[in-house]
Amino acid sequence: MIKESSSPLAKHMVNTLRDAACKPIEFRHYLKELAKLLIFEAAESLPLCERKISTWQGNFNGSFIDESRVVCVSILRAALPMQEGVLEVLANAEGGFLAMKRDEESHKSRLYYDRIPDLKGKTVIVVDPMVATGSSLHDAISLLQERGPDAIVTLNVIGAKEGVEQIASAFSGVAMHIAQIDPYLNKDAYIVPGLGDAGDRAYNTPG
User: Fold this and answer.
1) Residue 54: inside a domain
2) Is 30 in contact with 22 (CB distance < 8 Å)?
3) pLDDT for res 150
4) 167 near 174, Cβ under 8 Å?
5) Is position 55 within any domain?
6) CATH number (domain holding residue 37)
């Protein structure tokens, strides 16, 4: 299930990220803010609970997101600002990390770090700013599904049409919330128009 944001604010922030003059500190800031906007849009997929609280008018039974059943997993390294944004909104959710590197010749991803808490009975929010071929996100979702979560939701900033459609086709039960879908990939499997290498731009890493 693909849900592309129709928010003018999301489009504004994505296009700010596209700008080559966007500095690393600004780049990280907008990734974090986009994650917050996308988690608001994805909130209907999150588990709820009732809890009694004390208010100025006495006790009150209110509806809350059950943060004890939410895990936010980032695909390193560009997703770290997005994970920070989600965990600012859901302060008691757990965090997990996957590190995957793309082979520039085959365009396939390789997992080299895995630090994930117990997922049984939980909703996993996967944050990954870029969905190009979809290879990294596909491998991440496959790995996470094996660990028994109740549901998986992805938050993505930008993706090529073919990569997004590949994820939707492979994982019909996964809700993908994405700020912008771009038309296609070029011959080097980079998103067009895209925004460049998100990890390099976020952390000022020389290309």
Assistant:
1) no
2) yes
3) 97
4) yes
5) no
6) 3.40.50.2020
Query: Which among 124, 175, 129, 164 has a CA at the least distance from the CA of 146?
Result: 124
Count of alpha carbons within 13 angstroms of residue 90, beta-carbon side: 30
Q: What pTM value is reported for the model?
A: 0.93
Q: Judging by DSSP bridges, how do beta strands 94-102 and 70-76 pair with one another? A: parallel
Asked if residue 79 belongs to a domain, the reply is yes
Is pLDDT of 90 > 90? yes
Q: Say how many domains are in the chain.
A: 1
With respect to residue 206, please indicate whether it lies within any of the assigned structural domains: no
Range of the structural domain that residue 181 is part of: 2-47+65-200
Measured distance CA(41)–CA(26) in Å, rounded: 23
Question: Quick one: average pLDDT of 45-58?
Answer: 95
Q: Strand, coil or helix: what is 133?
A: coil
Rounded Cα–Cα distance for residues 94 and 146 (Å): 18
Q: How much of the chain, in percent, has pLDDT values that exceed 70?
A: 96
Q: Which amino acid is at 143?
A: L
**How many whole angstroms separate alpha carbon 54 and alpha carbon 205?**
49
Question: pLDDT band for position 36 (50/70/90)?
Answer: very high
